Write the structure tokens for this entry.
Amino acid sequence: MLLSLQDIGVSFAGNTILEHISGEVNVTSRIGLIGANGAGKSTLLSMITGELENEWGEITRKPGIRIGYLHQNSGLEGTNSIRAEMRTVFAPVLAARQKMDDLQIEMGQSIPDSDEYKAFAAEYDHALAFFEANDGYMIDVKIQSILNGMGFGSRDPDTKISTLSGGEKTRLALAKLLLSEPELLILDEPTNHLDFKTLRWLEGHLAEYKGAVIVVSHDRYFLDQTVSEIWEIEFGSMRVFPGNYSKYKLLKADLMARWEKEYQAQQEEIADLEDYVARNLVRATTSKSAKSRVKKLERMERIERPREYNKEMFLHFSYDRDPVKDVLVAKDLSLTVGQADKRKHLFDHLSFQIERGDKVAVIGENGIGKSSLLKALLGRIRFDSGRYRWGDETKISYFDQENRQLNPENTVIEELWQRYPGKTETEIRTELGRVLLIGEDVYKKVSVLSGGERAKLAFAILMAERGNFLMLDEPTNHLDLRSKEILEDALAEFPGTMLFVSHDRYLLRRVPDKIIEIFSDHVEVFPGNYDYYMEKQEAKERAAAAAAASAAAAAPPAPAETAPKAGTVSYNRGKEQRAASAKIRARIKALEKRMEEIDEEIAEINAEMAAEGLDYEKLQELCARLEALHTEQDEGMEEWLELSEG
């Protein structure tokens, strides 16, 4: 066991925040920590890490436990390059390598078989043992592997961290934490700023991770893929559920149903007992039995009424008139954004069609232009070329992920009322109340609202607009788990047409009937939801693997350099590709064999250098050979990595 929480709790300014929290973290635990915004998740994590002292109960940690904690949106800073920053994780191992190099020089300058020489040799052996025990020869391979997985594979490793975007700095912080391999890995919203490819890699990496993991995430699909236990914080206490998020939902619903049933049954029993006592306590013939029922009532352990967060926003999108059948037709769209040296070309040849009633999701790599596409379709920026046409009677309601359509100087009530001045204050407050913007909150300025509050105000505006075409850019950002589910229900029930951008794979499973994936030079259309999309992606991967295996089995010699006959160009190209693949595999195999030989020779040289009676010239010769082997090993590792990932 790595960590145990026994009835812990904490308060702030006399108010109890958490109490009676108990749970265990074992060496292979995969825990998803969930709860409404403000429920106390960060407070619990701070107590687990020791950043905050618990007032009650006991926290037992394994002596010397290494805990790695990635706070939400906590990016790296500084002037280091990407490579240099990643190598800081291995500072003790790299220091051991430097010490080995220094000791080789000292040994070369010492008299063989002298006490000084023997002392240097002993230090060298100690440093070598530490270096090899910590996979020192694999440091650069480990770094590159993690950087590739986290989306930095094509980035120059000498890029300065200070030049990266905020999202890139956060991803790099996660990469560094993964490299450090703590015994307990704590991740607070790690899926922010990750595209699908990186998410899938991270899910696979965490599945193989040797330590324990605690994840705080609003990404329900991610929780389903990575955790086997849910800790739910609610009303200041915590319940533990086995299984992933989907299993938790079933278990929680069953728990609440049973709890409500038991509560109602006890209430009926109490009512019957109290009624009997009231009718019979003063009657001589039944007074004794009535008193026994009074005692039973006094001894009864009362079941607390089930509590759930019953303040939930209400969302329902509707419209007044249908558009024509062909709502949107786009042909050969090309888009470039930015000005001067910040100008960036996004995509070409983008063509698609949306019909009335379609629910279409747009996906693609970060920075490919998904949000820009929506803005261009709204006419807020211009396409370079191509054409698009909106169908008659189409009324668009747009949700901006940054809520830039809101006036930060307005109060909440002003923001909605200015758009619909004909409504009464009661009607406006009723609309806001549906999204839980009530009481004094309606007089807050938009500029001071949280991300979730701004999103709810935007949803209130969408409901009031009654558009028959919803255009949504990352609508689940800033929402807690329950609010996401409410939004999903509303979108799934919406009878109109929809085009939305989202990284929320739970939403992508539930709502769309078509997915458009944008690439720089084309689009691919999938007539189904995210599950269908993934089936097609996995089929592609299986086909590619089968083709590679077939090429490996065939591995024919390269064709003679003669002019191709008509109709044989594609065949010859396939033969050339298979030959090239075979050549790469052969080189990889040769490199692996050579790495083994180098390891063996290094071990032999180290043993020879530690022997007594070694003369100076021989020692110099061995040191030179050892340095040459290390250089060859580093170069071989780099080539192996490039070929393996190509």
Observations:
- The chain is about 45% helix and 20% strand.
- Residues 560-575 have pLDDT under 50 and may be disordered.
- Residues 569-609 form the longest helix (41 residues).
- The two ends are 41 Å apart (CA to CA).
